[in-house]
Design a protein that fits this description.
This protein is of the alpha/beta class and 301 residues long. Helix content is 40%, strand content 21%. It comes from Ruminococcus albus 8.
Length: 301
């Protein structure tokens, strides 16, 4: 397992702005690969502006290999590393809710157990909160990379400012879930994540926005998202299709979206399920991803 590299850390103030302290919140279950969890934990604990609190939710009993990694990090970061264990797997939404309650800081940075954050991710997100204290939820672009070769495959962009975020949220998640950071108090106010088994991150983002949360995305890649050979199959699976339609039906019944925003995305998801795999690959490359390797900046968004 990798250990501290001695990389220089930034102070708790940047450009005259005092950076708020933050908690990192991650959940893991027994299907995670140990090497992926290790890399993900390293990427968050070695941030240039490090966390003051780290909450790891173990969603059900972990394998021995995963437990070894968890205990190793707990021993190395005794002052900030806290483990919340759940006896049985309850799903991402319920697991994250337990983690939110356990977080000690007002600002919470979410992280998946198999992705990799850039070293300055948290510094940039906390600086945005410091510069714009009215914000409740922030995120960034992500870079998808091949799990086997480590090569960048594509970029996933999201809208940047509140007006565009609200409009985009009618059709899709306006935040890359791997990059989200939010206020604990606002998340608790809206009831946290739902018990949905899939797409709970999208439903959470919409509920935050519907209850007055102000959001913004940073036009930079701050997280690398791991893509494997099974990813296209997951994207077109019946399980994900049902989950996607269920969330959109919920938003439709609550009045957040109308029929024009409900039907087309659901129809398209059904087409991805029915049509051959090559169509799913083509569609994501053509319409939902930027396959240019050069990372986007504020000048070329």
């Amino acid at each position: 397992m990798a250990r501290h590299t001695g990389k220089k850390r930034v102070k708790d103030s940047v450009a005259g702005y005092k950076l708020p302290k933050y908690s990192v919140l991650m959940s893991v279950y027994d299907q995670e690969l140990p090497e992926n969890l290790n890399q993900s934990l390293e990427s968050m604990l070695k941030q240039t502006y490090p966390p003051s609190d780290f909450v790891l939710v173990c969603d059900g009993k972990l394998t021995n290999e995963l437990d070894v990694i968890v205990k190793s990090f707990q021993n190395e970061y005794k002052k900030i590393f806290h483990i919340v264990r759940i006896d049985e797997n309850v799903g991402a939404g319920k697991a994250v809710n337990k983690g939110i309650k356990a977080c000690r800081c007002e600002y919470i940075v979410r992280m998946d157990s198999d992705d990799v954050s850039k070293p300055d991710r948290c510094m940039k997100e906390m600086l945005l909160f410091a510069v714009m204290p009215e914000l409740d939820i922030v995120g960034s672009f992500v870079e998808e990379f091949d799990d086997f070769t480590d090569k960048t495959i594509s970029l996933k962009k999201v809208p940047l400012v509140q007006k565009d975020i609200l409009s985009y949220s009618k059709r899709r998640n306006p935040f890359n879930r791997q990059t989200v950071a939010f206020r604990k108090s606002k998340a608790m106010e809206v009831g946290g994540y739902s018990d949905l088994k899939l797409c709970e991150d999208y439903e959470f983002a919409v509920r935050m926005l519907a209850n007055g949360a102000v959001g913004q995305n940073i036009p930079e890649v701050l997280v690398r998202y791991r893509v494997s050979e099974s990813t296209p199959e997951i994207r077109r699976s019946w399980r994900l299709t049902k989950g996607f339609i269920a969330v959109r039906w919920k938003l439709f019944m609550e009045g957040y979206i109308g029929f024009r925003d409900f039907f087309p995305p659901c129809f398209l998801q059904l087409m991805l399920f029915v049509l051959p795999m090559r169509f799913t690959r083509w569609f994501y490359r053509k319409f939902l991803r930027d396959t240019k390797i050069t990372p986007p900046t504020a000048d070329n968004v």
